[in-house]
């Protein structure tokens, strides 16, 4: 190695390390990342106490990683490299042709059985009929699309076990979705870049729920429900897009089928009722477009339709955001309660508000990992 | 701080190097000491105190040994005192809980467990400082009268937390006087980048495969094929992880003006278990040989004593790797194979074709990794039982794993041979000149992408 060449190589090394450091320092800090849908770590405040227990230096490391320049591009580059190396799984997400499917890990600490027992306890506590609808995720419905031999926890077996639960009526989302698994009309039944079901999937979901309630004949054909003049968003890149780092798939489109006219939507976001809508179209301009349904997570939401029949309490996760518009068409009142944010007794709520039935509607991946369902026993 | 972190690569390292090279030569030990203490204190600020204590005690003991050199018994006493101090330090932080847990199993005895976090690199720096007083006593190295120079040796950040174990005599001269040419810097930077890529790209990929096989075992679905895939993956993970870390340490040492000894020499090409240990973690093997095996009498005092010495050394080697029975078993397992090779297989091995010998060595070593990897001996026993036929041969997830990792496994297997180095030498000088910066940029950029993604970056040698 000549001196000149050595200097050149050394310079390459220094420029890369020093250059990124300088870039990092000059780049203004961001508050949140839309792609990751979370707030980013800021530089921690110094205190001797934090230094001593190591939380200060840990905070600096988090800050350093979160504010790193071109964060999303680096993640994309990693996914590309992994693909070149023949990997099919990207941070827990399988790449299956043109779709991403999240792998479901086996539940820990027997949480799935505990949560089932909480649902039975709810049924014991209330006079109202209790329905349990577990929504299988794409990894179950589209199992044949997974890479050959790829593992994902058996949701169908769990749903079958849940159907045996005493005192609780099952809602058969599994069969309803399986019957339409191959459907390619409109958006398909699951998003390709997000873990939720699409509006079409939610339509079949609501049909299954009505079936379980003995009102299956009320459900019209999808073509007649689907309104033509509501906006459609074509640029939806969902949670799996972020989680996997796979940024090269065609974005999803989001459809809105149900017209809002005649419906009253009341959102309880901070303990006080506020008038809201079935859709919050502001979200279509943001990354998190799925939140356009009902405007995203909230403790309690009530939808009233004078032309509907019956009053239903839905204890639910975010899958119900896109399900709610269909239920609104059928019921006089639909109360959507999210136990992650609503901390009081569900049974008491149903009685106080004169409701007719309680439906626990949860996606399997959330049901087997949620630690808030114990609140159902209150 | 670990080398394979964004904070180190794009914060600590460029700033430290800038400071180091802006400082005049004779002040550099001081900068190095400060920078290393900062590096050390980053993860466990409180343990900087342990470091100061260690520096102070070993520094004074070195002086005492030198001062009483004429009175041999006193000098030996001070060497002993320093060894005892270092072993107590190591014993207290690393082995207390293990001893307490095991003693408490005896009826009528309860010893409280402390649950203290292990000071980073304590297994490495206590061994280094022991070598210092012993080397001074043996006249293998001059005494260090400058406490800053000595402190810089003890805390030297490139090898502080994961080795190689640098004997004092190796760097004694460079501590006093060292120069860094641009060639040293360039070669050090290349070596560092290669080590980084080995750790971040290859070792972690193998680790993910090993975890997937472990998950199969936890689900009760391990097959013979899955079991061997897992052992193979773990063996490659630990090799690329550890040798990658050693490469980074050696490269950083080079950049700062130190030449550390090599720590790995393609161990998976060995043709006997004995040879494997001469090519794997060489700085540890040679430390035990020089400071334990030879002082015990080595192999010169008859078969019975040789046998005893081998068992002692391999018990210690195993136990050094972690305070848990599986590590003890792992050490003794190798001790047993070395005894067999020395006393039983010697003639047989001499007549065996090279390929068969390589296969035999790999088999012994990779089964050994099973014992090393699984601390719970029950889990370990069940896992190995499946490997040797106690389960179904094959299942669909094995096919998925092999398809997903085929290319990576091939790269790992080839990467543990001399193939890459041989090919590199075949490329004409001009081609290498073009390729070197391209490969360096590629290694840095892709490693950065993996670090930023950060989904999977555990560090195996934290236990040490």
User: Uncertain regions of chain B: pLDDT < 50 for 5+ in a row?
Assistant: 455-464
Order of helices and strands of chain B: HHHHHHHHHHHHHHHHHHHH
Percentage of residues in strands of chain A: 15-25%
In the sheet with the most strands of chain A, the strands line up as 7-6-15-13-14-12-10-11
Largest sheet of chain B: none
How would you describe the oligomerization state of the chains in this entry? heterodimer
Q: Which regions of chain A are unreliable across 5 or more consecutive residues at pLDDT < 50? A: none
Radius of gyration of chain A: 24 Å
Beginning-to-end CA distance, first to last residue of chain B: 14 Å
Count of individual beta strands of chain A? 15
Q: How far is it from the N-terminal to the C-terminal residue of chain A, by CA?
A: 76 Å
The most extensive contact between chains is:
A-B, 46 and 56 residues
The overall number of domains of chain B is 2
Helix content of chain A: 25-40%
**What's the total count of β strands of chain B?**
0
Written account of the structure:
The complex is a heterodimer of chains A (378) and B (464). Chain A is α/β, with parallel strands linked by helices. Chain A folds into 2 domains: 19-69, no CATH class; 93-377, no CATH class. Chain A is 36% helix and 17% strand. Chain A contains 14 helices and 15 strands. Chain A has helices at residues 3-26, 48-52, 55-66, 71-84, 111-125, 138-141, 155-163, 173-178, 199-212, 222-225, 239-244, 319-330, 346-352, 364-367; strands at residues 32-33, 38-39, 89-90, 93-96, 99-102, 130-135, 169-171, 232-236, 252-255, 264-268, 273-276, 300-304, 311-316, 333-337, 357-363. In chain A, helix 9 (199-212) packs across helix 12. Mean pLDDT of chain B is 92; it is low at 455-464. The chains are: A alpha/beta (378), B mainly alpha (464). At the A-B interface, helix 1, helix 3 and helix 4 of A face helix 1, helix 9, helix 18 and helix 20 of B.
